């Protein structure tokens, strides 16, 4: 299995590997890593990839479940998607955590995910924008590798980037910081002057831990006088910000937006056409603004 995975990804030595923390997936992951020449120390684990929790039915056979909770088990057999074991999760409960994990962790490129039957089905639903319920009833064996892609080869993507342009859904998201004390607050958080940042501009800013170690790096944009967006990679920045805002009139929230990257030689012409000329050569690095793209403000 590891050899097959190595042949499917373009960067087997560095491709991100995510795994459920449960024992059986860790064992499979160790086998995969060994075949790929990787250390298991490079693997990241996340509880959201764990199998559906079976509550009081954990470890029981189907017969034992029926004998213990006949009524519940009968309803479960009729609607496996929504009915759960007493004290456990239904399959529909797994979908939000699969969705949350995918939003937080999925990169633009290759990734290997080692998980369980139900989370894998839910991840396929999320990645392919499918109704999750029918996937519960599709036969899936335990000895298969499920490859999800957009049908475009890495070579085609490379030449599209070099000659034209590509759009990439990156695993980055903004955090909104606003309020009368927003600037003073961000001066406290980041190891860079924020007060001198002009509206409509951005700059790279890092947040450091108390001992000086790097906690987070990203791009801070000043949208208005007391309103900022910090575009960050994967991480718990919101919790860090909330822990440091005591005594300051600051609001920290998720603006429910995602970052997209458009790159390539044809980018200037594409963006000019998409915005009716609003984005032109005067729009430089680290500039920001609101523009109409296809009737939607972005």
* CA(first)-CA(last) distance: 43 Å
What class do helices, strands and sheet pairing give? alpha+beta
CATH class of the largest domain: Alpha Beta
Quaternary organisation: single chain
Roughly what fraction of the amino acids lie in strands? 15-25%
CATH topology of the largest domain, by name, is Alpha-Beta Plaits
Instruction: For the largest sheet, list the strands in their spatial order.
Output: 6-7-8-5-9
Strand count: 12
The mean pLDDT is 86
Please provide a written account of the structure.
By secondary structure, the chain is of the alpha+beta class. The protein has two domains: 2-52 and 89-135, Phosphoglycerate mutase-like (Rossmann fold), CATH 3.40.50.1240; 168-297, Alpha-Beta Plaits. Helices cover 34% and strands 18% of the residues. It is built from eleven helices and twelve strands. It has helices spanning 2-8, 23-36, 62-68, 70-78, 91-105, 117-128, 132-135, 154-163, 182-189, 237-244, 267-274, and strands at residues 17-19, 44-45, 112-114, 166-169, 173-178, 201-208, 214-224, 227-232, 251-253, 260-263, 292-293, 296-297. A five-stranded antiparallel β-sheet has the order 6-7-8-5-9, covered by helices on one side. A three-stranded parallel β-sheet has the order 2-1-3. Helix 2 links the parallel strand 1 and strand 2. Helix 1 crosses helix 2, helix 3 (62-68) packs across helix 4 and helix 5 crosses helix 6. It starts with a helix and ends with a strand. The model has no long low-confidence stretch (mean pLDDT 86).
């Amino acid at each position: 299995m590891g050899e097959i995975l190595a042949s499917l990804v373009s960067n087997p030595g560095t491709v991100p590997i995510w795994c459920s923390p449960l024992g059986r997936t860790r064992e499979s992951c160790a086998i995969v890593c060994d075949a790929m020449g990787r250390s298991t120390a490079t693997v990241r684990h996340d509880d959201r990839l764990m199998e559906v929790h079976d509550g009081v039915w954990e470890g029981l056979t189907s017969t034992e479940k029926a004998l213990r909770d006949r009524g519940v088990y009968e309803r479960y057999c009729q609607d496996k998607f929504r009915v759960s074991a007493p004290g456990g999760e239904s399959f529909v409960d797994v979908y939000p955590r699969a969705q949350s994990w995918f939003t937080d962790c999925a990169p633009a490129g290759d990734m290997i995910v080692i998980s369980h039957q139900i989370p894998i089905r839910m991840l396929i639903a999320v990645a392919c924008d499918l109704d999750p319920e029918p996937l519960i009833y599709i036969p899936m064996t335990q000895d298969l590798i499920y490859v999800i892609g957009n049908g475009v080869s890495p070579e085609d993507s490379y030449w599209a980037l070099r000659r034209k342009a590509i759009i990439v859904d990156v695993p980055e998201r903004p955090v909104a910081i606003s309020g009368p004390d927003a600037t003073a607050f961000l001066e406290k958080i980041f190891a860079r002057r924020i007060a001198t940042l002009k509206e409509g501009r951005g700059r790279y800013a890092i947040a450091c831990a108390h001992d000086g170690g790097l906690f987070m790096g990203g791009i801070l944009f000043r949208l208005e006088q007391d309103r900022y967006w910090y575009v960050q990679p994967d991480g718990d920045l919101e919790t860090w910000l909330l822990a440091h805002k005591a005594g300051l009139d600051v609001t920290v929230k998720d603006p429910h937006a995602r970052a997209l990257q458009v790159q390539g030689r044809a980018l200037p012409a594409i963006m000019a056409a998409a915005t009716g000329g609003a984005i032109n050569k005067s729009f430089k690095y680290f500039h920001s603004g609101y523009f109409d793209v296809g009737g939607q403000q972005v």
